[in-house]
Amino acid sequence: MFKELEAGTVQVLTVDREVDFGYFLTNGEEDVLLHHSQVEGEIEIEDEVKVFLYHDKEVRLTATMNIPKVQIGSYAWTEVVDVNSGLGVFVDIGLMKDILVSADDLPIYEDLWPAPGDKLYMSLRGDKNGRLYGKLATENIIGQITRRASKEMLKATVQGRVYRLLKVGTFFLSEQGYRCFVHENERRQEPRLGEQVEGRVIDVKEDGTLNVSFLPLKQDKMGEDADIITGYMDSRGGAMPLWDKSLPEEIKDKLGLSKASFKRAMGKLMKEGRVYQEEGWTYYKK
């Protein structure tokens, strides 16, 4: 019984005949073209060849002996090569034609979409017309490739790729295969899906997953926050309408800092004798 020719699958077919531009392969009922450019090695009539099936740019079913790692039901990392606003992003899986990951499967806000060079862990899916699209890995799929982290990972630095974005935080898979979570309070800004990130481990959970922070250590962060404050003051001629008694919302709106971070950085600047406060304002000392 023959297996129906389906885009996104790997099949073993028989070389039926040669034409000027390639070979026609058959499963006994249907034919598909294997272009000369997609042949690896030498083949002859009646040989059985292993090929991957997909649609070319003219939406014709075609075959290649260059088997991609990403297939229907098979996952791998793919690189984003182009972004089309409103449509989605295109990834390179090793074919002559790039594969679309639809906007429907990407974050609502396009500034969180992957950029060229970012990578996505995905497989393929076909629509009712057999056209192939990228299919992002779910949490269950990610769970199948992760490993448990030991307590020795505490305070370690980890790098990896973002695979899931939620309002509460960012999920990424580390290069070592650890599942990592970054709470929204442990990041200054939300990274893109597929972006390469780096952070430090702040907790090793009982299930072997890691809690990670994108923020620097408190003493380093204090210096960075102080730079934010002085940068803002510089933009206003050396003064700002904020001081220790300002409301948290005012501080967050103008500087992007929490009140606690603001007060620590302000204490550092005052201790160094660089600023002083008066009637709701902060000024540089002359």
UniProtKB/TrEMBL annotation:
Record's protein name: S1 motif domain-containing protein
Gene3D superfamilies from the UniProt entry: Nucleic acid-binding proteins (2.40.50.140), Winged helix-like DNA-binding domain superfamily/Winged helix DNA-binding domain (1.10.10.10)
Pfam families in UniProt: CvfB_1st (PF21191), CvfB_2nd (PF21543), S1_2 (PF13509), WHD_CvfB (PF17783)
Source taxon at top rank: Bacteria
Lineage per the UniProt record: Bacteria, Bacillati, Bacillota, Bacilli, Bacillales
Organism: Bacillus salacetis
Domain Conserved virulence factor B first S1: from-to ranges: 8-65
Membership in a protein family: Belongs to the CvfB family.
Boundaries of every Conserved virulence factor B second S1 domain copy: 75-135
Domain Conserved virulence factor B third S1 per the UniProt entry, residue ranges: 144-216
Ranges for domain Conserved virulence factor B-like winged helix: 229-283
PANTHER family per the UniProt record, alphabetical: CONSERVED VIRULENCE FACTOR B
InterPro entries tied to this protein: CvfB_fam, CvfB_S1_2nd, CvfB_S1_3rd, CvfB_S1_st, CvfB_WH, NA-bd_OB-fold, WH-like_DNA-bd_sf
